[in-house]
Amino acid sequence: MLTLFAYAKINLTLEVLGRRADGYHELMTVFQTIDLKDTLSFVAQRGISLECDYPGLNSPHNLALKAAGVLQEATGCSKGARISIKKGIPLAAGLGGGASDTAATLQALNELWQLSLSREQLLQLAAKVSSDAAFFLYGGTALGEGRGERITPLPPFPPSWVVLLKPPINVPDNKTERLYASLNPSHFASGQFSKSMVELLHRRGEVPSSSLFNTFEQVAFAAFPGLEEYWQRFLDLGADNVHLAGSGPTLFTLTRDRSHGEELYRSLSRKGLEVYLVQTVAEL
Question: What values do phi and psi take at 208, rounded to 5?
Answer without folding.
Answer: -65, 150
